[in-house]
Design brief:
single chain, alpha+beta, 2 helices, 5 strands, globular
């Protein structure tokens, strides 16, 4: 093994350390997410322990965030390319 190969090993381990720390932070953030339940293949209900706060509907490549307790009266509050920000937006409307 050359000296160059030996000196690379510590650098690789240093690069993985932040990734491990980041994954611990990610799991902490996931615990704060609102609860989401699939209602149908393209519709998810966002709820707290008390009540339904809205819905996220998948329309093609877009997740449409809908705030409101009832789907037929829910109001669109945003469109996102990923589920998590759409659910967060619905959850933010609870105030």
């Amino acid at each position: 093994m050359s000296h160059a190969e030996t000196s690379r090993s510590p650098q690789r381990s240093l690069r993985t350390a932040p990734a491990l720390a980041g994954s611990a932070e990610t799991s902490t953030l996931e615990m704060r997410l609102p609860r989401v339940e699939r209602v149908s293949p393209h519709l998810l209900r966002v709820y707290t322990s008390e009540a339904t706060v809205g819905f996220v509907e998948r329309v093609g490549p877009v997740f449409v965030a809908l705030a409101g307790e009832r789907y037929d009266r829910a109001v669109e509050v945003g469109q996102y390319r990923e589920l998590e920000p759409a659910a967060q937006k619905v959850f933010a409307q609870v105030d």
